[in-house]
Each structure stands twice: as C-alpha cells, then as structure tokens.
Amino acid sequence: MPNYVFNVDVTLRKAVLDPQGKAVHHAARTLGYASIAEIRIGKHIEITCSAENETDARKTVEELAGRLLANPVTEDFRVELRRDHVDAHRSAAPSREV
Amino acid sequence: MPNYVFNVDVTLRKAVLDPQGKAVHHAARTLGYASIAEIRIGKHIEITCSAENETDARKTVEELAGRLLANPVTEDFRVELRRDHVDAHRSAAPSREV
User: How close A55 gets to chain B, by Cα (Å)?
Assistant: First the structure.
C-alpha cells in the first residue's frame, strides 16, 4: 500500500489567548522587528499513513487529529496532503504504467 | 501599510530524533491506528507583518524565523504567504479599482 504524507496544522482559536506567541512577539520587537504586528504559535505535525487511496488515508488522519492532536475546545486543525511525497512514491512504484 | 500574514512551519531535520513524535505515534497505535507509519512534530507559527509590499514582508519574516524561531543546527523552516489574508485586505482597501 502507498504511503501518504499529510501536514496537520493545529492552531489556537482566535478567542483563545496565546501567551507563548505574545512572548515571541515581545522578543521580536526587542530585536528591532517593529513591523511585526502579531505572532501566534501552534503545532505542525507530519503524519505518514499507509492506505489503499488518498481518501482512506485522509479519513484516518483527520480522525486521529480530532481525537489525539487537537483540543476540541481551544484548537482548530487543518489537514493537507503533501503532493511532493505522493509523487515521490508513484515514480518509485514498480507497478507503474508508463 | 497592508498587513501580510505568513505561515512559518519549523520542522526537525530528518537526521534528528523526535521523541515527542515517537510518543504520539505510540499513542496512536495504542488507540488502534495501525496504518500510521510515522509522526513528526514541529511548530506552526502565524506571523502578521506590516510592510509596503509582499517582498519586504517576506524578507522580514524569513530573517526573524532564522534568528528567533528555528534552531539552525537541528531545524528547518518554510515560509508561506497566506493568500486568504492578502485577498481579505485587498477587498477592504478603499483605493481598489473595480
């Protein structure tokens, strides 16, 4: 079965305070970056999932993200397939039709 | 000056061990997700930068990411403009031509 690599970005909801982002923003201004207006920090997770097709892989990853990776009260998440990795797999597959 | 919003994804280099990712991977398998082959965890940072144009904004954000957000020995980073936010700005601009 092919491997699909997904990027999952977990972000704090707009209404939730982000003290880590505020601290980094303060550090940036101290370093002289006055044009930075806001910094918010979340998690970036790369998940490799083995499945028959993209739809099955995405379903598994979305379910996992909702159950294990994001806090449903304070966080949102976005799942995105990494096209580079799918192509890399396809060009290496022995059963590929030319 | 318009605001530009960038996503900065900071990831551990391939050769660097990721114990946090390993722990989440183990938890996923314990929950029954046997098809997950690998999980790697990094940071997802949203930076709002005020600048004359996209090029200046990107230069500032890339410099900041290299100096403050990513560890140059163990981490890589990728900077991406969020198109949705630029469009939102443009459609609200009073000088827009229809």
Answer: 14
Whole-complex ipTM: 0.83
The whole domain housing A16 covers 3-92
User: CA torsion angle for B18, B24, B27, B28 (degrees, to 10)?
Assistant: -110
Nearest CB to B9 within list A1, A44, A50: A44
Q: Is A62 exposed, middle or buried (0-12, 13-18, 19+ CB in 10 A)?
A: middle
pLDDT tens digits along A51-65? 999 999 999 999 999
Residue pair A31/B67 in contact (Cβ under 8 Å)? The answer is yes
Is A14 part of a structural domain of the chain?
Answer: yes
Instruction: Confirm whether B66 is domain-assigned.
Output: yes
Nearest residue of A to residue B78 by CA position? A44
pLDDT greater than 50 at residue B93:
no
Least CB-CB distance to A64: which of B10, B28, B68? Answer: B28
The CATH number of whichever domain residue B51 belongs to comes to 3.30.1280.10
The pLDDT score that the predictor gives to residue B83 is 81
Where residue B84 falls among pLDDT bands split at 50, 70, 90?
A: confident
What is the tally of structural domains in chain A?
1
